[in-house]
Amino acid sequence: MKHFIAALLILYTAAMCNTAVAQKDTLKVITYTDFPPFVTNELPGGGIINEIVKASFAAADIELEIEFIPWKRSYRAIARGEFLASFSWAYSDDRAKDFHFSDPLFVVTNRLLTTLPELSSWEMLAQEHTSDDLIILCAPIGWKIAEELEALIDKNFITLMAPSRPQSCIELIHAGRTDLIYMPQITATYHLNSAKKQDTAHPDRPWPTINSVDIPSGNNNTQHVIFTKNAEGLSYKKRFDTGLRKIVADGTYAEILLRFLSNVPEAERLRIMQDQRDADIIPAIE
């Protein structure tokens, strides 16, 4: 009888252990939809960063419930503690005062995109010009703008137009109402191709040629998950960081990137991969 009871206890203990292993935490996180191809509900998997975030949490035994809401509401909701986490946010010292930031999960390079054929460097924007030659920069509201452009805005060399949606910048440049866009080239290309498909009323209308200009502080714009600044938020941040390291080590991270970037021109795809290596997110090629 004693042996029978002991055997039952062993089976019960094993069953409870298996149940504990099988159970996962469920975490509701919020994000927004207007940052393609990084975060969007228009692509399978929700975009590159969406997939990376889900895979990282899964590697930490956390199942996600993702809710899409406008970015302004998502930021306020995290600040008020209505949700524990949100993505994807660029790091800033001001935001770090209010939230726990995950380790960098992706690097986005923002570029100065222009229809001005003579503009070959951002420094040219600092040249004197008349009010009749007003230069307008379009950058979505809430986006972190390069320091160099902020200085030019402060000095009235350029004027900022900040619509609520990134795709509005493409519409404005097509209408000739802005000369410059500040965003990742891959995002601008996505919105440009989408706008061309939707412009069925004017299929023969020419679209402007958009050139890319590098701007130093637009590089290494790290993206993060932000967590409420309390003990629970810190705990989930640590688990996420551990999960992120796991998917980098086992190749899941690289697989996600290559899958989403398969249709991107080779030069741009290689540059994006190199950006992640330069930021020490993925290992350098030896």
Verbal overview:
This protein is α/β, with parallel strands linked by helices and 286 residues long. The chain has two domains: 25-108 and 219-278, Periplasmic binding protein-like II (D-Maltodextrin-Binding Protein, domain 2, 3-Layer(aba) Sandwich), CATH 3.40.190; 110-196 and 205-218, D-Maltodextrin-Binding Protein, domain 2 (3-Layer(aba) Sandwich), CATH 3.40.190. Helices cover 41% and strands 19% of the residues. The protein contains ten helices and eleven strands. The chain has helices at 2-22, 48-59, 71-79, 93-96, 147-154, 166-174, 185-198, 231-249, 252-260, 266-278; strands at residues 25-31, 62-68, 85-90, 99-101, 106-108, 110-114, 136-138, 159-161, 180-184, 211-213, 221-228. The strands form two sheets. Strands 1, 2, 3, 4, 5 and 11 form a six-stranded mixed beta sheet that branches. It has a five-stranded mixed beta sheet with strand order 8-7-9-6-10. Helix 5 links the parallel strand 7 and strand 8. The longest helix has 21 residues, at 2-22. The protein is globular, with a radius of gyration of 23 Å. Residues 2-12 and 14-22 have low confidence and may be disordered.
- Helix segment tally: 10
**What is the straight-line distance between the termini?**
63 Å
The first-level CATH class of the largest domain is given as Alpha Beta
Q: Kindly estimate the percentage of residues that lie in beta strands according to DSSP.
A: 15-25%
- Model regions low in confidence, pLDDT < 50 over at least 5 residues: 2-12, 14-22
